[in-house]
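Shipment paperwork, digital attachment
Item: protein structure file
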Amino acid sequence: MKHLLLRGSRWHARMGIPQDVRAKLGHKREFTQSLRTTDRRQAEILAGPLIAEWKNAIESARGSAAAIEREALVARMASKHDSSVHPDTGMTDTDYYAESIADRLNDEGKRRFYNLYTGRVGTPFDYFLEDFVIARYDNPRTAGDARLAIKRFKHHCSELEGTTRKSVIGWLESETRARKTVSKSLSFLNNYWEYLQDREVVSLDLQPFRKHKIPSKLKPSKKREPFNDEEVSLIIEALKAETDQQLFLLIHLAIYTGARISELAALTTEDLIECEGVVCLNITDSKTEAGKRVVPVHRRLKNLVISLSESSGDGYLLAGVNSKGGAARRADVLGKRFGRLVRNKLSLPSSKVFHSFRNTVITKLEKAGIPENIAADLVGHEKDTVTYGLYSSGTDIKQRQSAINKINYEGT
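Attachment content:
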């Protein structure tokens, strides 16, 4: 780490202070602090929070509203545990620390800082949202769902200080979405609250999102149904007529793998691999650990995927998908196009969605007599049994290849 310095046998953290803020930060040229350790790895861990704090101080000195708010909230959290009161002034050590921060701010910065530090203004409910998402979620889609859940709740309860069990009950009673969707949002909110408790932002005694019953008035989520062979054939013929090559290729990958749309959209040319002489898709971008798997390419797909890999112009197996949100939103672009096709053009029921292809493939595997443990390894499901789930290292490529090649569709 460039911010580590060895002095004698002990490591120190250090960071230069830009010239434009040195006057506001005590006319020092750099921040420095002993980490009191001789172990480099331990020093790297200890230096992280210090570097973050120093960077925030620099941004605060430059007048960044977000940095000022962060320092105010950190100081307010510290004040809850500060019992040192100076007899002459009645101020605590934290009060003096807060005063030193305010001294380097302009009038607007001082007002913003003291409003939060003193509690005159509450903490925005979603203030720590990005820190939480980065700390807890690797999968972009799951991270997006978490952001949406927290931002939606903020419309009902804008500040952390106003979040109580009663306010959560009020939110639940106002909900009109499907029961499963509300339950998922509640889970994200509870995870966020636990993260805030770990950081001592909110009290450990408050559990506003725990042990709620989802209102019975909410409609149950519609059950997904698998596509039958006739519907699969109908979709493929419609895509031929519309000359939507990307969606045409995506559907073929889906019906012979059972992979999620996000997994397929994220496949790169490097994910087409050979394993034990078998051409396979190496799925690494999945929302679960079990979802990270190697799937043999169906015999009917082999020439197609090799051609896709060789002709790709952007490194993705499904090339040329234009997404304003970057790679993480490629699946959304394709999913919306698929939705318009099956609803507007083909008038298929709402129970038939892209995810239904997983149902279709799993149904095909079951009807072909494929053991559940092999099917689970193909579609990326956890195996709950102790024998296969805990002790087994999984099925081999030849077993998976034999199983996947039993998938067949009439009329395609």
